[in-house]
Fold this protein.
Amino acid sequence: MVINGQPFTMLFLNDIRISHLLQQLRVINSPPTVDDHDYQVPLYFIENFRRYEKVSQSGPKVLVGEFAVINDDDSKITNPFGPGRLSFPSTKSAIAESIYRIGLNVVLLLLLKGQEGDGKLGNLYFIATKRTNDNTLIVKFSNVDHSDILVKAQIQGSMASATGVAHILTAVPGIDSATGHNTMVNPNAAAIVTIPVVAILKGMNDISFVC
């Protein structure tokens, strides 16, 4: 058989090679690895923030191969491929994907370092770690609340600097952050801005953030 000028060999169910493959597959009780591909609405990724915390460590390894919000309408959770498909990413989709990714980061910390961390306070999702080569505290937040959330954290075994840098995903003036989309015509309707921040220090190791 030739497709686009390239020869292909067709295998049929009665082919001895297919029969051998099927016999081998039958003896695999559990696959060594599974590949997760998720294309969904924002609500799916927010609700599945803890999905990989529930994966058995004795079962197959999980490769999170692909995931993306493809429809901003949460009511389409049972059929995200239907009407309303996104032509371009939105701030809503980016926030939902970041929450899912924070959940993955939390699991990695549990697996690699055995560190406990809830990763969620109400509608605020977070993870914190330290870059050891320059002793920099890195905190990631995703807030799905319409209001700012004040977070008070205690840093153990470190002295917190009073200054830092924040990288914030935000919509430009005139763009609704809940529905804004970047497009080819307006590629910066939502963008990451970098601003200096000053932490509110209380004592030696207490620090507050507004998200």
User: Anything to note?
Assistant: The longest helix spans residues 91-113. Confidence is low (pLDDT under 50) at residues 7-11. The longest strand covers residues 61-69. The CA atoms of residues 121 and 151 lie 9 Å apart.
